[in-house]
Specification:
Rossmann fold, 136 residues, alpha/beta, 5-stranded parallel β-sheet
C-alpha cells in the first residue's frame, strides 16, 4: 500500500484529500505543515513524517507567504531528494514550479478530486523512478 503524506494548512481540505485517497486504497496521513507546528525541513533537518511516506502531497500555499512553499519544496528536495512530491494548487500553478531537476514536483492545478490526486500521485512515483534526483 502506498503511503501518502498530505501537507496542507487547511484541515478541512486536508481531511477531504486524505479521505479521498483512503477510499482509493492509499495509506494517507496528514500534516499541517509549517503553519500547524515547527517544520524540521525549514530548520534544515529531515522530517520523520516525510521519511515514512512514499509520496508527498503538498498544498502550494501552505505557508501563507508567497515564497514559503518554494522554500519548503527546495528544503525537502535537499533533505529527501528521491521522495516524489505532488504540488496541489487549486487556483493557479506557481511560476517557480520545476518539473525536472533537483527541485522537481508533479504539479496538480485545479480542484484536487480523488481521481486527479491518485493520477498525480502515480505520475509522481513514476517520475521519481525514471529520473534521478540530480536531473541527470
Amino acid at each position: 500500500m502506498t503511503r501518502v503524506l498530505v501537507v496542507h494548512h487547511d484541515v478541512d481540505l486536508s481531511d477531504q484529500e486524505v479521505d479521498a485517497l483512503r477510499r482509493r486504497g492509499y495509506d494517507a496521513r496528514q500534516c499541517m505543515g509549517p503553519i500547524g507546528a515547527r517544520c524540521p525541513i525549514l530548520s534544515g533537518r529531515t522530517c520523520d513524517l516525510a521519511a515514512g511516506a512514499d509520496v508527498l502531497v503538498y498544498d502550494a500555499f501552505m505557508t501563507g507567504e508567497p515564497d514559503g512553499a518554494r522554500r519548503l519544496v527546495e528544503g525537502m528536495r535537499e533533505l529527501h531528494p528521491d521522495l516524489p512530491i505532488v504540488l496541489v494548487a487549486t487556483s493557479f500553478e506557481p511560476e517557480w514550479v520545476e518539473t525536472a531537476g533537483a527541485h522537481r514536483v508533479t504539479p496538480l492545478a485545479g480542484h484536487p478530486t480523488g481521481d486527479r490526486l491518485a493520477t498525480a500521485i502515480e505520475a509522481a512515483i513514476a517520475l521519481a523512478r525514471s529520473a534521478p534526483a540530480d536531473g541527470a
